[in-house]
Design goal:
- InterPro entries: Kinase-like_dom_sf (IPR011009), Prot_kinase_dom (IPR000719), Protein_kinase_ATP_BS (IPR017441), Ser/Thr_kinase_AS (IPR008271).
- The chain is of the alpha+beta class.
- The protein folds into two domains: 87 residues, 2-Layer Sandwich (Phosphorylase Kinase, domain 1); 231 residues, Transferase(Phosphotransferase) domain 1 (Transferase(Phosphotransferase), domain 1, Orthogonal Bundle), CATH 1.10.510.10.
- It is built from ten helices and 14 strands.
- The strands form four sheets. The protein has a six-stranded antiparallel sheet with strand order 1-2-3-4-6-5, covered by helices on one side.
- The longest helix has 20 residues.
- It is globular and about 55 Å long.
- The two termini are 16 Å apart.
Length: 330
C-alpha cells in the first residue's frame, strides 16, 4: 500500500504500524488541532469481492462497536469514512506501546512488571471487557497486540474489528466460522461453536498467565499443535513456574481457562474480583473456582496449512470446513 498524506480533513504524518491488509498512521485533525491514530484499509486493492465485503463489514462493525463504548480502558473512536477506495477509522492516539511488545517471544522475557502491576493491568482489561459485554459487544480477538499500555502503564483495549454486537449484528460470522487469533482463541472458537462473552474471558486468562509466568499456557510446533493444546491440554500451574506466585492464582487461571464456557467465570467482573482476592491473599472457594480438569470437547479441529505457515498471532477469519480464510496481521 502506498503511504498516504491526506484522508478527508486529516493529515497523515507517519506510519505507526502495518498489518496484512492495512496501515495505522499518526495523523492530525486540523479542525481540532488534535493528534489522532488513523487505521486504513485500501479496499480497491482487494481483488476478491467476498474478502473486500468482509473487510468493509469489519470496519463498519468496529466503528459502530467502539462508538457505543465510553470507558477509560477502551480506545475512543472519533470518526469513520471512505475516500477513493480507502476506508479509514480515526481513533484516540495512545502514547505508549502494545502489551505484545513485552511478551515478544523473540526476546528473553524479564518480569518488567511487579505482581501488583500485572494484576492491576489485568483488572483494567477485565473492566473494559465487562463494560463491552454489558453493552452487548463481544470482542472475540483479545490479545496483547490489541492491548495498548500508556506511559503510565494504563490499559486501553483496541481493535474491535471482529467484535460481535449481539443486539445489532447477531448474524455476523455465526457458528461454523473461526474468528480470532489462534494462540488466544477459546476451544469453542477453534471448534467453530457459538462464541459468547466467556470466549473473551478465556483470552484474558491467557494474558494473565503470560503476566504471571512470561509464557503462553498453550504451546506447540505450528498452529495445529497449539489448537490441540487449547482444546485438550492443561497448562502448567503458574505457581509451579514461579515461586513468587501463590496457588490462589492457579485457581483463578484454571477457572478462566476452563475448556467448557460454563465452567469459566460467568462475567469479567467475577474474574476481576477473584484476581484481586488472590493478590490480597484472601481465600477463594475451591468448589466454585476449580473446574473439572478433563472434559470431552468436539474433536474436530480446522486445519489449514497455509495458515500454519504464517504468523500464528495474526487475526484469522476462516470457514470451519477448510474454506480459505483471511489473516489480518497484528
Amino acid at each position: 500500500m502506498n503511504e498516504l498524506k491526506q484522508l478527508g480533513r486529516y493529515q497523515l504524518l507517519r506510519v505507526l504500524g502495518r498489518g496484512a491488509m492495512g496501515l495505522v498512521y499518526e495523523g492530525v485533525d486540523p479542525k481540532l488541532n488534535r493528534r489522532v491514530a488513523i487505521k486504513v484499509i485500501q479496499m480497491s486493492r482487494i481483488d476478491d469481492p467476498a474478502l473486500r465485503a468482509e473487510y468493509a463489514s469489519r470496519f463498519i462493525t468496529e466503528a459502530q462497536a467502539v462508538a457505543r463504548l465510553n470507558h477509560p480502558n477502551i480506545v475512543t473512536v472519533y470518526d469513520f469514512g471512505e475516500e477513493n477506495g480507502v476506508a479509514y477509522l480515526v481513533m484516540e492516539l495512545i502514547a505508549g506501546e502494545e502489551l505484545g511488545s513485552y511478551f515478544d517471544d523473540s526476546q528473553v522475557f524479564t518480569l518488567d512488571f511487579t505482581l501488583e502491576d500485572s494484576v492491576r493491568m489485568t483488572c483494567e482489561l477485565l473492566d473494559a471487557v465487562d463494560y463491552a459485554h454489558q453493552h452487548g459487544i463481544i470482542h472475540r480477538d483479545i490479545k496483547p497486540a490489541n492491548v495498548m499500555l500508556s506511559g503510565q502503564l494504563r490499559v486501553k483495549l483496541t481493535d474491535f474489528g471482529v467484535a460481535r454486537m449481539q443486539d445489532v449484528n447477531a448474524n455476523h460470522t455465526e457458528a461454523g466460522t473461526m474468528v480470532g487469533t489462534p494462540s488466544y482463541m477459546s476451544p469453542e472458537q477453534i471448534t467453530g461453536q457459538a462464541v459468547g462473552p466467556r470466549s473473551d474471558i478465556f483470552a484474558v486468562g491467557i494474558i494473565l498467565y503470560q503476566f504471571l509466568t512470561g509464557e503462553k499456557p498453550f504451546k506447540g510446533q505450528g498452529l495445529f499443535a497449539v489448537q490441540q493444546q487449547i482444546v485438550y491440554g492443561q497448562p502448567e500451574l503458574p505457581s509451579s513456574l514461579s515461586p513468587l506466585i501463590s496457588p490462589m492464582f492457579d485457581r483463578v487461571v484454571l477457572r478462566a481457562l476452563a475448556k467448557r464456557p460454563e465452567d469459566r467465570y460467568p462475567s469479567a467482573r467475577d474474574f476481576r474480583d477473584d484476581l484481586r482476592r488472590a493478590l490480597n491473599g484472601e481465600t477463594i472457594g475451591v468448589n466454585d473456582t476449580m473446574p473439572p480438569q478433563a472434559r470431552e470437547v468436539n474433536p474436530f479441529l480446522p486445519r489449514n496449512a497455509a495458515l500454519e505457515a504464517s504468523d500464528p498471532d495474526a487475526t484469522v477469519i476462516t470457514g470451519i470446513n477448510g474454506v480459505p480464510g483471511m489473516r489480518t496481521g497484528e
